[in-house]
Write a sequence for this structure.
């Protein structure tokens, strides 16, 4: 069953210097029990996409396109309707647990507050549920530590508390935005294992946002590759790593340590993500792409056979779809 569906989602930010095109026509779906990874460099639109789904875009943002959650259109919801969903059927884990937890209140009371905000239960029942979910995410002596403030917990334990708050009402969709960025490798592995276990147990649809392809390879079922606000490739995780079809995806994978290159300096990518206030036409990766062609200024359309889709003129399926969409004359412009 499809839990989340995005169709041609576009986000622009108006500013004094003009309009910034942060997302440019992103379309994808996430099914029940699936973990979809979103990867790309900083500034490619991953967090903007998460905020669009959660209804947390800044007032200056202009959102277009369709975002459907369990068949319900989210882009037409008012602030009150969105608040009823957030923390209940829709939940999010942020990358910095210190910013997500109020230092003036105990960790347990903050989890219990999430329960009370969406369930008609008394204080005692909310506390019991908070202790239950704190135990589930691996907080030792959860009942005894319920009343402790966040600063008495390590970084990894604080992230577990944030996960507990997100899962307290058993959401149907979980957005995890760089959930292990601030943690060391050992704690990161523990948190990733915990997320995978909890996701499988609760059958949540999950969107994992990360710049770390190693994390995505461990955790995800499918992967979407974002570049400068455009979705350039979408595939099952094993297929993507074995047969990347977009030049940007190949560059990201080639830069991984141990990706088959000799010892020494890792291969990199020249240039930088374009200014989204003045993005290049067509494929936004073209100015950095070693295989760029004149056609790249038009399209290309994300298309593919089976579950592997790519937006690149070098791919026959994408080329055919782009030509059909824009016409042969424009495609040669």
């Amino acid at each position: 069953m499809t839990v989340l569906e995005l169709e041609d989602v576009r986000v622009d930010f108006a500013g004094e210097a003009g309009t910034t095109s942060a997302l440019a026509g992103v379309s994808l779906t996430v099914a029940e029990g699936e973990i979809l990874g979103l990867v790309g460099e900083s500034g490619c639109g991953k967090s903007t996409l998460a905020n669009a789904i959660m209804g947390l875009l800044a007032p200056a943002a202009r959102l277009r396109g369709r975002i459907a959650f369990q068949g319900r259109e989210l882009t037409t919801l008012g602030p009150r309707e969105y608040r009823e969903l957030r923390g209940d059927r829709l939940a999010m884990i942020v990358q910095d647990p210190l910013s997500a937890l109020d230092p003036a209140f105990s960790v347990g009371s903050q989890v219990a507050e999430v329960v009370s905000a969406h369930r008609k239960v008394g204080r005692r029942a909310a506390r019991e549920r908070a202790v239950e979910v704190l135990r589930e995410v691996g907080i030792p002596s959860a009942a005894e530590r319920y009343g402790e403030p966040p600063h008495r917990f390590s970084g990894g334990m604080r992230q577990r508390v944030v996960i507990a708050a997100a899962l307290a009402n058993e959401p149907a969709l979980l957005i995890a935005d760089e959930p292990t960025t601030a943690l060391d490798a050992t704690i990161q592995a523990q948190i990733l294992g915990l997320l995978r276990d909890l996701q499988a147990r609760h059958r949540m649809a999950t969107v994992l946002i990360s710049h770390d392809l190693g994390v995505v390879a461990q955790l995800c079922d499918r992967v979407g590759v974002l570049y400068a606000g455009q979705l350039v490739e979408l595939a099952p995780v094993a297929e993507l790593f074995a047969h990347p079809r977009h030049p940007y995806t190949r560059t990201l994978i080639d830069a991984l340590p141990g990706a088959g290159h000799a010892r020494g300096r890792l291969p990199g990518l020249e240039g930088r993500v374009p200014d989204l206030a003045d993005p290049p036409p067509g494929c936004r990766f073209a100015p950095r792409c070693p295989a760029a062609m004149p056609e790249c200024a038009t399209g290309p359309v994300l298309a593919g056979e089976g579950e592997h889709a790519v937006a690149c003129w070098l791919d026959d399926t994408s080329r055919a779809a782009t030509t059909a969409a824009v016409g042969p004359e424009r495609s040669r412009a």
Notes: The radius of gyration is 21 Å. The chain has a mean pLDDT of 91. The first helix runs from residue 46 to 54.
